[in-house]
Automatic annotation (TrEMBL):
Domain Amidohydrolase-related, residue spans: 48-361
Highest taxon of the lineage: Bacteria
Protein name: Amidohydrolase-related domain-containing protein
Cited PANTHER family: ALPHA-D-RIBOSE 1-METHYLPHOSPHONATE 5-TRIPHOSPHATE DIPHOSPHATASE
A GO molecular-function descriptor: hydrolase activity, acting on carbon-nitrogen (but not peptide) bonds
A matching Pfam family: Amidohydro_1
Length: 362
């Protein structure tokens, strides 16, 4: 493990950039003081950020984890995998982005995850009485959190999960010590997930926007939202059906984010990056997180707020206590960029160097 000090860098503090300072790394962790005779790296006045966290991905191989590292995304949160053994192996890979995963998702009987995306039949939760079984299965797998998929009620499609079943899965998950993330893409599913007490609502409404009252309710209840703007925008532009209903617009998504932002809700950075041919759309691994940051700023977040949603706020929401900040004791997951991303979010793309647990990403 390399021990070194990065000198003459402006550190992202969560509120802005510090004055030029030095950051020491010892045994893969950020140290309070440099050791004698440590190797020195001149940061040349660049901005040093905590490694970025993508709060919604679907990863299938090591190559994708390497892509994240090259783009300064050092932690990725997988939101459901049909192949748990392969994903579990990837969680143990080194020198690539650190992977956390929900494992198999909870869905309705004959839900799309089982019907089209090759998830095992055990992903289907048949009713409230089946919730304990589903959560126990995930605990036995050793997942990091629980994911529930709320689908919309559509003609000639299987019945989605009902409210009582969602409430039961959330309650059982919380009893077992898991956080719960819910796929929600409508105002109705946002309300169901919120009323059930989910911790994270992922995606944003497409057919209509959240109003101020619902946004305030989400904020007051302490839910976090990962709107995955890059995916929602692409869904509107390349709707996965022959005819796109007129009510489905990207403006609904933006207005929902704006309402949540005005209400003071916690907004995270997630992309829904995937290369799954069964998914509605594919999204590039790694690079898309920088596009997500840009879209969030366009929707009204300040660059500092967007950066927090991909660093310390994301770490806090998911209980990742060892990352998300440049401070002593934290993992030395770091991203060095040219420019000032706290005033120009596009500066996150001017990457000079990335470290994962103190090791340089080549």
């Amino acid at each position: 493990m390399n021990n070194f000090v990065v000198e003459n860098v402006r550190v992202f503090t969560g509120a802005g950039l510090s004055v030029p300072t030095s950051v020491a790394v010892v045994d893969g962790r950020i140290a309070g003081m440099p050791l004698p005779d440590m190797a020195s790296i001149d940061g040349c006045g660049a901005a040093l950020l905590p490694g970025l966290i993508d709060t919604h991905v679907h990863v299938h191989n090591r190559r994708q984890l390497m892509a994240y590292g090259r783009w300064g995304v050092t932690t990725v949160l997988d939101m459901g995998t049909a192949n748990w053994p392969a994903t579990d192996d990837l969680r143990r890979e080194s020198m690539v982005a650190d992977l956390k995963s929900a494992g198999n998702v909870a869905c309705a009987v004959n839900g799309r995850a089982v019907r089209k995306m090759h998830f095992p039949s055990s992903s289907a939760v048949s009713g409230p009485a089946d919730a304990a079984r589903f959560v126990a299965d995930r605990a036995a797998q050793g997942v990091d959190y629980i994911k529930i998929v709320l689908e919309e009620k559509l003609p000639f499609q299987p019945k989605p999960l009902d409210t009582r079943t969602v409430e039961a899965v959330v309650a059982e998950a919380h009893k077992a010590g898991f956080r719960v993330c819910v796929h929600a893409a409508s105002v109705k599913s946002f309300k169901i997930a919120s009323d059930a007490g989910a911790d994270v609502l992922t995606h944003a409404p497409l057919a209509s926007a959240l109003d101020g009252s619902q946004a305030r309710d989400i904020a007051q209840r302490g839910h976090a939202v990962s709107p995955t703007l890059v995916m929602m925008k692409k869904l509107v532009e390349r709707f996965p059906a022959p005819i796109k209903p007129k009510r489905i617009t990207y403006q609904n998504v933006v207005q929902s984010v704006q309402a949540l932002h005005r209400a003071g809700a916690t907004i995270l950075v997630g992309t829904d990056a995937n290369s799954d041919p069964t998914a509605p759309n594919t999204i590039e691994h790694g690079a898309s997180l920088h596009e997500e940051l840009e879209l969030l700023v366009q929707a009204g977040l300040s660059p500092v707020e967007a950066l927090n949603g991909a660093t310390q706020t994301a770490a806090d929401v998911f209980g990742l206590t060892d990352r998300g900040r440049i401070s002593p004791g934290q993992r030395a997951d770091m991203l060095l960029v040219e420019g000032d991303p706290t005033t120009d979010i596009l500066a996150t793309q001017n990457i000079k160097q990335v470290w994962i647990a103190g090791e340089v990403v080549r």
